[in-house]
Amino acid sequence: MNDMKNVMVKMGLDAWNGYLNRTGKLFDELSDEQLNNEVSPGRNTGIYLYGHLIAVHDSMLPLLGLGEKLYPELEQPFIKDADKSGHTFPVASVLRNYWKEVNAKLATAFATLSADDWFARHMSVSEEDFKNEPHRNKLNVLLSRTSHLASHYGQVVFLQGKSE
Amino acid sequence: MNDMKNVMVKMGLDAWNGYLNRTGKLFDELSDEQLNNEVSPGRNTGIYLYGHLIAVHDSMLPLLGLGEKLYPELEQPFIKDADKSGHTFPVASVLRNYWKEVNAKLATAFATLSADDWFARHMSVSEEDFKNEPHRNKLNVLLSRTSHLASHYGQVVFLQGKSE
Questions:
Q1: Residues contacting A37, CB < 8 A, separation 6+
Q2: Are A153 and A39 in contact (CB under 8 A)?
Q3: Is A8's Cβ below 8 Å from some Cβ in B?
Q4: CB of A120 less than 8 A from some CB of B
Q5: What is the dihedral of CA B25, B44, A46, B14, to 10 degrees?
Q6: In B, residues 37-96, which contact A (CB 8 Å cutoff)?
């Protein structure tokens, strides 16, 4: 049983790390000026999507029972509110640092999880409900956040080649 | 063991069906004229991404050992070649039908797979290699194609609100 669980966890982590590395590399290659552009006319800016992904990944820490958020102040401007809602965003260099910190903390925490831990409930489902819905586990959060990340990766890539 | 495999298969299928339904609904709501627009200036057109996703999903049939491709002629214009390579694409109404046919065939075939089948090798890995790399299974193909679909969903959504 545990062998098979390990295989499944590897599948989930490989997919997550694949998109996380691609997206991190993409943000690294974009200049601060490029990040200020909209990914498509009238759509979100690169800087908003950067903060959005950091905030969503930061919120995985409590959701997976791995600790408190590092930057809870990002939730309002980058998750609850849309881009261009009047918030002053952190400058790009600050977000570049936050990206590294949040994803490093996640990676360190993931390394402490056993395969059984990954198949245990996440923190938004009760023990009661989890008995009937065992798919609502931590690994499912990772799968879901991987697709979310991929959907925004496909947008941020449009900033490549935009004027610096 | 099989209980856990079933849970994992449900996780994978839920994620796939979630993005597939969202993307199918999005294409349905876009007019033929909107599909002719680029998703962002200088980027792929909606019609190219429509054909690309159909062709990639069609190629899942042989890769998962579920049969031959329905529309092998889509591979050259929509996978091997980039948009604007000089191909005359099928008109939108034809692609709308192809989308339904390919995804219906996949859904029917998926329904025949047991949890053990999903954890068996896909057709691009040898039995020999699979012994050492058991994550290279059919379910992993589904996870990978879900992220691929999500990355393009995030782009096609930009066609909403474009001029008809």
A1: A45, A46, A159, A162, A163
A2: no
A3: yes
A4: no
A5: 30
A6: 39-43
Q: Are B49 and B39 in contact (CB under 8 A)?
A: yes
Each residue's pLDDT expressed in tens, for chain B with a length of 164 residues: 568 899 999 999 999 999 999 999 999 999 999 999 999 999 999 999 999 999 999 999 999 999 999 999 999 999 999 999 999 999 999 999 999 999 999 999 999 999 999 999 999 999 999 999 999 999 999 999 999 999 999 999 999 987 65
List Cβ neighbours of B58 (8 Å cut-off, separation of 6 or more).
Answer: B69, B70, B71, B72, B74, B98, B102
Q: Do A12 and B143 touch (CB under 8 A)?
A: yes
Fold for domain B2-6+20-159? Four Helix Bundle (Hemerythrin (Met), subunit A) (1.20.120)
